[in-house]
Design goal:
With about 280 residues, this protein is an alpha+beta fold. Helices cover about 50% and strands about 10% of the residues. α1 (about 1-15) packs across α2, α2 (about 20-35) crosses α3 (about 40-50) and α6 crosses α7 (about 135-145).
């Protein structure tokens, strides 16, 4: 039930790093994003108060030691995420799933030398986070394994412990990603891309949207790339998203995002509004 799910999420969030007000605020945000229909505010606050009275699920540990090799691995995973083609419905959902794992892996992941980054996460928790069914995560994992992106790792799982995923080190792949091309293109058009600096994927604030919501996974990907690379023309974004024609991208994605208040268009360039996180909270799905 929604109440049980919110209670479970509250228990995970109550890790000793939040006071009651912070826990309430975060739970209300989760409720608005994930519950359809959402629970009443009073019910969410009751759950938060009940959970906050308990002992935290884990104490705040010491800050992670600086690990240059691990940081380089995360950077490689982020670069691979931004440059990879994620075609089709399943591809965009897989991109959302991998972005979630990169974000969590940067905070609490464990590096496996010569393999990749291990991220402890259950299928259920991942599905709740990115707004899809658990079976979707199972199918995405199978697809990602065939593509050499990640694999499941439950070798050390015991009892009710969450399983884990391993994001495979893209630097160890037999081949590298081809130059960024629009769909149907036969030659590189990297000259269309003028923005090279990038915000870390793990730091992106773009929400995970449900596939059938007002935004959906395809537009979510467009928002992520604009947040990552900053102001862009429709042509630049079309190159990154592998769209053959920029005008189709504007018609199907960018125009609706502008109308929803999630994008602004200034002098032919698309960017995020000043209060982006607040704009996202106003859009359901």
């Amino acid at each position: 039930s929604r109440n049980q799910t919110m209670t479970s999420i509250a228990g995970e969030l109550h890790d000793g790093t939040r006071d009651l007000a912070a826990l309430e605020a975060e739970l209300l945000g989760v409720n608005a994003r994930r519950c359809d229909p959402p629970l009443s505010e009073a019910e969410v606050l009751k759950i938060a108060a009940s959970i906050h009275r308990r002992e935290p699920c884990k104490k705040r540990g010491p800050a992670r030691d600086h690990d240059p090799e691990r940081e380089e691995l995360v950077e490689a995973l982020e670069a691979s995420w931004c440059s990879r083609a994620w075609p089709g419905v399943g591809g965009k959902t897989l991109a959302s799933f991998v972005r979630h794992l990169i974000r969590k892996g940067k905070r609490v992941g464990t590096m496996i030398p010569g393999v990749g980054l291990r991220v402890q996460e259950s299928v259920r928790a991942a599905a709740e986070e990115i707004g899809c069914h658990r079976n979707t995560i199972v199918n995405a994992t199978k697809r990602a394994r065939k593509l050499g992106i990640l694999r499941k790792d439950d070798g050390f799982r015991t009892g009710r412990d969450a399983g884990a995923f391993v994001l495979l080190d893209p630097r160890l792949a037999c081949d590298t990603h081809p130059p960024i091309l629009p769909s149907g293109s036969k030659k590189a058009v990297d000259k269309s891309v003028t923005t090279s600096s990038r915000r870390p994927v793990a730091d992106l604030t773009t929400k995970h949207y449900r596939w059938r919501g007002l935004v959906g996974k395809g537009r979510e990907m467009a928002l992520c790339l604009i947040e990552a690379f900053g102001l862009q023309s429709a042509q630049e974004l079309a190159v990154r998203l592998r769209w053959a024609r920029a005008r189709d991208l504007e018609r199907r994605y960018l125009g609706s995002l502008v109308r929803l208040g999630l994008l602004v268009r200034v002098d032919g360039l698309y960017g995020l509004p000043e209060h982006y996180e607040a704009a996202q909270e106003r859009v359901k799905g």
